[in-house]
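Researcher: Structure prediction, please.
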Amino acid sequence: MRAKDELGRRGEEMAAAYLSGAGQRVIDRNWRSPDGELDLITVDGASIVVSEVKTRRSTDYGHPFEAITGAKVRRLQSLGQQWLRDHGMAGTAMRVDAVAVLYGQARWPVIEYLKDVG
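Model: Predicted structure follows.
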């Protein structure tokens, strides 16, 4: 596995643990369709949550959240609707969240969470 892919996988594991600790239940990971991929799908109360995870080693090229553009959020919303249809849950409340995992000089990564980014 390439180092970049391994970093992303570790970041998604950290994000899943963080969201679980915050009371969300992870129900799917790395769901793929011809149109793209969803990193994490969780349940938070009555809502399905699509969480985009961005993992970086530093902020040299910007904060991880900066990679989540308006176009990216719209694509995640569309993919989330596809996921709901594919799982017989069309019409269920859904939101898009973002998780940044930053591996820097600290012993443990810093995790930041944004609820309802779009």
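Model: The CA atoms of residues 27 and 100 lie 20 Å apart.
Researcher: Thanks, that helps.
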